[in-house]
Specification:
mainly alpha, 2 strands, 5% strand
């Protein structure tokens, strides 16, 4: 019974860490950009690290898995069957391809405490 409780707590901790890692960061307030200056010589000093660097992008890689109602992987999904929404608005899909060689992270939890002395071979 103790083993099940420890295993359940470990699984819940891993799920909580996964959910916490997937929460989007709050959006930073965008400030107007100052006018661009002409670059000087290469020997000029590099600006200090106190300034915030803000970048934007028009292309984002989105990796996902499609499953049916029984949690079985759908392997033959087509681009026409996928809709990506951002703030409730559909986004254009630039490219769509199936990738099956992505890395995977697996964690194995083993309880080798004294309470399991007679259960572990």
């Amino acid at each position: 019974m103790f083993t099940r409780i420890v295993s359940l707590i470990a699984i819940l901790a891993m799920l909580a860490a996964t959910v916490a890692a997937q929460k989007p960061a709050p959006r930073a307030e965008q400030k107007p950009r100052p006018p661009a200056q002409q670059p000087k010589d290469k020997d000029d000093e590099i600006p200090g690290g106190d300034e915030a660097v803000r970048l934007g992008t028009d292309l984002v890689n989105l990796t996902f898995s499609a499953v049916d109602r029984n949690n079985r992987i759908i392997g033959d999904i087509r681009q026409e069957e996928v809709t990506v929404l951002e703030d409730g608005r559909p986004q254009q899909l630039f490219t769509f391809k199936r990738v099956t060689t992505l890395p995977i992270n697996i964690a194995i939890l083993m309880d080798l405490s004294c309470s399991q002395e007679y259960n572990v071979p």
